[in-house]
Amino acid sequence: MIGRRWMGALPVITLLAGCASTSSTISPSPQAPVCDRHAAALVLWAPQWRADQKDIAEREAAAESGLRSFLAGSGCFARADLRRVSSLAPAAVAAGQPAADGPHQLVVTVAVRELGPVVKLLSSASLVEGGTEVVLDITSRPAQSASPPRAFTVHWRHGGAGVVKGVASLPDDMRAALQVGLRPAELKP
C-alpha cells in the first residue's frame, strides 16, 4: 500500500523538483565593468519598491546583506564605503557624499527595484514555475566629475519550472546580480 502511494506521488514530486537556471540582462548593453580594484568607491543604495511591495523590511535587510557581502568578498574596489540613502535623487546623492576632498575616486549608486521570490501557477506544462528575481538600476561616475553618470539596469533571474524559492536566498541573489552588473571578474591587474 505505501509503495503504491509513493508511486502515485512520483510524477508530482518529479514535477515539483524542477530544473533551475539563471539568466540576466543588462540594459543598455554592453557595459564596461564598473569595478576598479585600485579605486576607493562610495556606494550609495536605496530601495525603489513598487507600491504593492510586501515584506519591505526583510527585503531591505537582504539587499543590504547582499551588498555588504559582495563588496567585502568580490575584490571589486580597493575599498568601498556603503551607505543607505533615502533616495537616489541628485540632491540625496550629493548629501550622501563627503566633501570634495574626500577619499573616494568613484561614486556608484544602486537602486533596488525588485528583490524577491516569483511564483506563477499553471503557467506552463508544470504546475508551478518560480524562482527569484533581482532588478537593479546602477549608476557610476568619478567622484569629482560634474558629468552625468553612466546608468544601466541589471535584471537577474534564477528559477524555472517546478522551482519554488523563499526569501532565504535573497542576500546571495543580490550578490549574484551585483556580480553580473559590476563585473569584478573582468578586472585588469
Distinctive features:
189 residues; six-stranded mixed sheet; 4 helices; 6 strands; globular
How many helices? The count is 4
In the residues, how many domains can be counted?
Answer: 1
- The low-confidence runs, each spanning 5 or more residues with pLDDT under 50, are 1-16
Distance between the termini: 64 Å
Topology as H/E string? HEEHEHEEEH
| Mean pLDDT, all residues | 83
Biggest sheet: strands side by side, in what order? 1-6-5-4-2-3
CATH C-level class is Alpha Beta
CATH topology: Rossmann fold
Instruction: Please report which band the strand proportion falls in: under 5%, 5-15%, 15-25%, 25-35%, 35-45% or over 45%.
Output: 35-45%
CATH architecture: 3-Layer(aba) Sandwich
Q: Using the CA coordinates, give the radius of gyration.
A: 20 Å
Strand tally is: 6
Overall 3D shape: globular
- Level of helix content? 25-40%
Largest sheet: 6 strands, mixed
Report on the structure:
The chain has helices spanning 2-17, 56-73, 90-96, 170-182; strands at residues 21-27, 36-47, 77-84, 106-121, 128-142, 150-161. The chain is an alpha/beta fold and 189 residues long. The chain has a single domain, classed as Rossmann fold, CATH 3.40.50. Strands 1-6-5-4-2-3 form a six-stranded mixed beta sheet. The chain is globular, with a radius of gyration of 20 Å. The termini are far apart.
